[in-house]
Design goal:
The complex is a heterodimer.
Chain A lengths: L1 H23 L4 H26 L3 H28 L11 H22 L5 H23 L3 H21 L6 H28 L4 H5 L7
Chain B lengths: L4 H18 L3 H24 L12 H30 L5 H23 L3 H19 L5 H36 L8 H7 L5 H19 L7 H8 L2 H27 L7 H19 L6 H22 L1 H33 L10 H4 L1 H14 L6 H16 L1 H26 L14 H16 L3 H14 L1
Helix pairs in contact in B: 1-2, 1-4, 2-3, 2-4, 3-4, 3-10, 3-13, 3-18, 4-5, 4-10, 5-6, 5-10, 6-8, 6-9, 8-10, 9-10, 9-12, 10-12, 10-13, 11-12, 11-17, 12-13, 12-17, 13-15, 13-16, 13-18, 13-19, 15-17, 15-18, 16-17, 16-18
Classes of the chains: A mainly alpha, B mainly alpha.
């Protein structure tokens, strides 16, 4: 039984890292959003598995929020925004796909080296989970810095949060933080979509962050 | 349930936020905002008289009492300044009345979040509170809805969230380190329990956790390689928010960092957090000092000055030891008071001149003597000239370092001197000479400005013995 518990958790967390890589090389917004939905779906499965394994029913709430909110509601809302703004063209990336993938691999290697070494005494399940979640966090960061479009930066941030949720649920018996951090990811998504995108649209007729750069305080 | 001062410090701003969100009309809400801030300040002072018992979620000790009183005091004076500042903004139509309701509610939510972060006895709760504070300030920075304000808010949001995310990862790692010793569940995140068992934690995990926490909360402190959000957020938001950001929110993030520094210091096998903090502090100080020279926007200039001073403070706490910690605490207090006073003056000056461009602001001591001289005094104080409070604390930082690490002290002193040059170069044209351009009338509130300056002036000459012994207690606590 223990073998199965470990293998399924391993499979789900590993898939999350893999999907983060797939997000890295998407060059269309719609595709990126769909992949993010898959990311959130795998997260929901992973959290549900942890809830089952740890016999912690409150984690099912976290899983449900990830499933309903991150995998369905947010992607649908982003789809609508993109259609309404008419920006479903190619994403401008700062770094090419090749270098971005190489950087991503370097980051994953880094997180494995760091986390596996320092957690030598922790139980293997939590250990692998932590290493994978750090990879997802770093890949989310990479996605944010390699994109100029505000929508894809938000997606990068949400995948980063998925990594944090994975870490928090993997740390057995961690109080408070799971529920609250999920509530916060909801809040952040609301703020980002509701206020920033619409305000940016109102003012610039574009959500390309590069257009914002022109207005930086001192470069007038 | 009997309500004690501890609950009041949190409940008053929260209740006020709900009321202010519901009430229309600027006149009334501005007064209520001041009243709520005053009540919170009084509740915070009463913590010194009757110390409530700490629970699993909230904690009062010598360290956070200093922070909480400073926070609520500056929050109160800023609310007084904010009332006259926002009044003018509505008059000239820069801020729509509908947004003012939102602004006041957010101001109180921010106060609640900062107080919660300072009082939290749970590292998870502390993280949540700092996240709320970040989100509310993002919304307030973007409140003018101009191009610049939106860009600043977006940049702040992205960098702030990344910092916050790294800090959460660090927090999870601390829990992982504590779990084998304390056991699963709530107590592995309770500060007072963590401190008792810290020596037995796995040092490798703690080391990695501290790196994440330093980068995460360090972003919010505005330390050098991670500071990019800070000047924009200060320059484009409403000036009361610049004052609160510089004077308070940076301190709150620093407080979080100090808590974890104590934790690491208790574990003999973990890395010493000091050298990391010393390095980042020095880089911030020297880098920001050079950046002061080419600024064209007056609020951006003082934002860089904040980075410089946070660098000095982090440096002092990184050096550690009773004297350097004492100096760091004193410097933090003096910087909060002086920098918010400067922003009070700058806010009204920008309103009078209708611009934040340094080139367009000249001869203030002639055109608006009170504001002009207020700014001159503030800059003299912040540059660290005697006999004001910052001179005292900077002198203590530098002299205590000279005895231990002369080279580091030399670099630090150089940074302080470079910053002094940069500030006075600009001050010369801003404050003196022939006034140019139009001067609009304004109903400035001078009381908060000169009250802060008076405290800083007195502190430079005479520190009350109770304050000194209180700070010494905290300095010992910080190790």
């Amino acid at each position: 039984m223990h073998g199965l518990v470990f293998d399924v958790a391993h499979l789900l967390a590993g898939s999350l890292v893999l999907i983060s890589f797939i997000e890295l090389y998407q060059d269309r917004l719609f595709a990126l959003i769909n992949i993010f939905a898959a990311h959130a779906l795998v997260l929901a499965l992973s959290v549900a598995w942890q809830a089952y394994v740890q016999e912690a029913p409150h984690l099912y709430i976290t899983a449900a929020i990830a499933l309903v909110f991150k995998a369905v509601v947010i992607p649908m809302a982003l789809h609508r925004i993109i259609v309404r703004l008419g920006i479903h063209r190619e994403i401008e990336t700062v770094v090419g796909i090749g270098p971005a993938m190489l950087l991503g691999m370097g980051l994953v290697a880094l997180s494995m080296v760091v986390m596996l070494r320092v957690t030598a005494e922790a139980d293997p399940l939590a250990r692998e989970d932590l290493a994978f979640s750090l990879s997802v966090v770093l890949l989310g960061l990479l996605l944010m810095v390699t994109r100029r479009n505000a929508v894809s930066q938000v997606i990068g941030f949400m995948s980063l949060e998925n990594g944090l949720v994975l870490a928090a649920t993997g740390a057995k018996g961690m109080p408070l933080v799971v529920e609250i951090s999920v509530a916060f990811s909801v809040l952040i998504a609301f703020i980002v979509i509701g206020i920033f995108l619409f305000r940016i649209r109102e003012r610039f007729d574009t959500v390309d962050v590069q257009a914002l750069d022109r207005f930086r305080g001192e470069r007038k | 349930m009997n309500l004690n001062a501890l609950d009041a410090v949190l409940a008053i701003p929260l209740f006020a936020a709900a009321v202010l969100a519901a009430l229309p009309g600027y006149q009334l809400t501005a007064k209520l905002n001041v009243l709520a801030s005053l009540l919170t300040f009084l509740a915070a002072i009463s913590l010194f008289v009757i110390e409530p018992r700490s629970g699993d979620y909230l904690l009062v000790d010598d360290l956070n009492k200093v922070f909480i009183v400073l926070t609520t005091f500056v929050a109160f004076t800023t609310s007084v300044f904010s009332a006259s500042y926002i009044g003018h903004e509505i008059e000239i139509g820069r801020l729509k009345p509908a947004y003012v309701r939102f602004y006041h509610a957010m101001y109180q939510v921010l106060m609640f979040a900062m107080n919660l972060a300072l009082l939290a006895n749970n590292i998870g709760l502390m993280w949540v509170a700092i996240e709320i504070a970040t989100l509310t300030t993002v919304l307030m920075v973007g409140i003018y809805r101009t191009h610049e304000a939106l860009e600043a808010a977006w940049k702040y949001f992205i960098l702030g969230s990344v910092g916050i995310a790294l800090a959460l990862f660090g927090t999870i790692l601390v829990y992982m380190a504590a779990k084998p010793v304390i056991g699963e569940g709530l107590y592995a995140m309770v500060w007072t329990v963590l401190v008792v068992h810290a020596a037995k934690f796995d040092p490798a995990l703690l080391n990695v956790a501290f790196v994440f926490l330093l980068l995460g909360y360090g972003t919010k402190v505005g330390l050098a390689p991670l500071h990019a959000w800070l000047p924009d957020a200060h320059a484009e938001g409403p000036t009361p928010i610049s004052a609160v950001l510089s004077g308070l929110l940076l301190n709150v993030a620093l407080y979080a960092l100090l808590r974890f520094k104590i934790l690491l210091a208790l574990n003999p096998a973990a890395i010493a957090p000091g050298p990391l903090m010393v390095t980042m502090g020095l880089i911030s100080c020297v880098f920001a000092a050079f950046m002061l020279y080419r600024r064209r926007d007056i609020k951006r200039m003082f934002a860089y000055s904040s980075i410089e001073h946070m660098g000095i403070i982090v440096f002092a706490f990184g050096m550690g030891g009773p004297l350097a910690n004492f100096a760091g605490l004193l410097h933090m207090t003096m910087h909060s008071l002086t920098k918010s006073a400067i922003f009070f003056a700058v806010g009204h000056i920008a309103q009078v001149k209708g611009t934040q461009k340094i080139a367009d602001i000249t001869g203030l001591t002639v055109s608006t003597p009170l504001l002009g001289w207020g700014l001159v005094l503030g800059v003299v104080a912040i540059a660290g000239l005697p006999p004001l409070g910052i001179f005292m604390s900077e002198f203590l930082v530098v002299s205590s370092t000279f005895a231990r690490q002369p080279w580091l002290a030399t670099i630090l002193a150089l940074g302080i001197l470079i910053a002094l040059g940069g500030l006075f170069l600009r001050l010369n044209t801003i404050a003196f000479g022939e006034p140019r351009g139009s001067t609009a009338p304004t109903h400035a509130s001078y009381v908060p400005l000169f009250a802060h300056l008076a405290i800083v002036f007195v502190a430079g000459i005479y520190l009350p013995p109770t304050l000194v012994s209180g700070f010494q207690n905290v300095a010992r606590l910080l190790g």
